[in-house]
């Protein structure tokens, strides 16, 4: 099955919900919200929880995701909340049909799913094109410490009444890359369980590489933070945050 097809069915159950509070708080500290500037594009919006948080904070939100299954969940969530959100299926490597936005975000290390640094640079260029002048782009990625030291050997198991999941992570061959192997056991309508397997590959780069790629895309400046806080990265920081300005 395609990446995230089965993951979408259990994603919200296994996701640490407190992370959405952290992403929201970080965003609100770094995204100026005015009546004139409020159009926000959320890349890799997934099941729409973060999109809804942005809408509740007063932004006009469009969510983009590659997974149709994820977007089905997002649309149901927005309808239940009676929120005016727009969701589009698409690839962040091509944003040419999406119009202009004041702000773009890309969280949950989604940039790390790009195959190589050329694709990361292509995403940055696409974001630059859809941003209005003085627009802000915020994204997070795994630190090299996370991919090299923290994640290899990681194992997570989840058991519920209607599904079970085994999640193991290993170091991959390319520098600063990891492989997540996911096995799901989903209960069918007749009560039996069916096994599904997915493989998710992620890769990050050193800070200088991201710096160069942002500059090549046209961004005139960026600020760097770590682990949801307004502080510089440390040697053992797990997640880097970039706040780039067009």
TrEMBL record:
Q: Residue ranges of the Methyltransferase domain?
A: 41-135
Citing just one GO molecular function, the answer is: methyltransferase activity
- PANTHER family in UniProt: METHYLTRANSFERASE
The family database entries (InterPro entries) matched by this protein are listed as: Methyltransf_25, Methyltransf_Superfamily, SAM-dependent_MTases_sf
Which Gene3D superfamilies does this entry report, sorted A to Z? S-adenosyl-L-methionine-dependent methyltransferases, Vaccinia Virus protein VP39
Q: Check the record and name the Pfam families matching this protein.
A: Methyltransf_25
**What are its GO biological-process terms?**
methylation
Q: What is the protein name stated in its UniProt record?
A: SAM-dependent methyltransferase
| Methyltransferase as UniProt keyword | yes
**Alphabetically ordered keywords of this record:** Methyltransferase, Transferase
Question: CDD domains, from UniProt?
Answer: AdoMet_MTases
Tell me which domain of life the UniProt entry assigns to the organism this sequence originates from: Bacteria
């Amino acid at each position: 099955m395609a990446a995230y097809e089965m993951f979408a069915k259990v994603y919200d159950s296994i996701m640490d919900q407190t992370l959405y509070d952290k992403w929201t708080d970080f965003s609100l500290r770094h995204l100026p919200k005015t009546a004139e500037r409020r159009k926000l594009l959320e890349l890799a919006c997934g099941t729409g929880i973060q999109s809804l948080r942005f809408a509740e904070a007063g932004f006009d939100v469009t969510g983009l995701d590659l997974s149709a299954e994820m977007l089905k969940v997002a649309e149901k969530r927005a309808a239940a909340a009676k929120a005016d959100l727009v969701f589009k299926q698409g690839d962040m490597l091509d944003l040419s049909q999406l119009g202009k936005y004041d702000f773009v975000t890309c969280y949950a290390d989604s940039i790390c799913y790009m195959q190589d640094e050329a694709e990361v640079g292509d995403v940055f260029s696409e974001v630059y094109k859809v941003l209005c002048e003085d627009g802000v782009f915020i994204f997070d990625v795994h630190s090299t410490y996370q991919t090299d030291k923290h994640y290899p050997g990681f194992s997570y198991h989840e058991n519920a009444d209607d599904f079970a999941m085994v999640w193991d992570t290993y170091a991959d061959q390319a520098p600063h890359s990891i492989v997540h192997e996911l096995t799901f056991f989903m209960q069918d309508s007749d009560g039996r369980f069916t096994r599904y397997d997915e493989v998710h590959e992620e890769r990050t780069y050193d800070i200088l590489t991201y710096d160069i790629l942002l500059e090549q895309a046209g961004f005139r400046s960026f600020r760097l933070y770590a682990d949801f806080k307004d502080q510089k990265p440390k040697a053992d920081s797990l997640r880097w945050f970039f706040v780039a300005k067009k």
